[in-house]
Amino acid sequence: MKNINSDSPLFSLTCGQYLELNRQIFEEFTAQLAVSISSTEKELLTIEEAAEFLKMSVATLYSMNSRRKIPFTKISGKVYYKRSTLLAWLETGDRKTIAQIKREVNEGEGDHDK
Q: Edge to edge, what strands does the sheet with 44-46 contain?
């Protein structure tokens, strides 16, 4: 369908035109929301911002830095964290469920037969 003329009153639209207008509004809204979210999320975080993002104290992050337990960058003596790197780091800490472990064990046993 073509774009609906915005000068037309809503009561004059057919059901199809109304649904198309609703779809267009939804697509425009979600596109604007995506732009808004991406522009507000900084990629490079200070230690205070990273602590807030990870729901940890700044002292905990400093401790983790000194033990090399968390990825960070140090520039001119100041510590920074990449949001994308922190997200990837968090994913490495995922713990498998017992069902996942059993499934992997069972799949591994089947590989010996091949």
A: 44-46, 78-82, 73-75
- Strands 73-75 and 44-46 turn out to be unpaired
Tell the residue number behind the tokens 């002292």, with chain if given.
59
Question: What are the structural domain ranges in the chain?
Answer: 10-40, 42-114
pLDDT at 21: 84
CATH for the stretch 42-114: 1.10.10
Q: Find all residues with CB under 8 Å of 73, minimum gap 6, and list them.
A: 79, 80, 81, 82
DSSP 11-41: GGS-HHHHHHHHHHHHHHHHHHHHHHHHHHS
Q: How much is the pTM?
A: 0.51
Distance in angstroms (rounded) separating the CA atoms of residues 7 and 9? 6
Position 1 scores a pLDDT of 44
Find, among 66, 63, 40, the residue nearest to 53 by Cα: 40
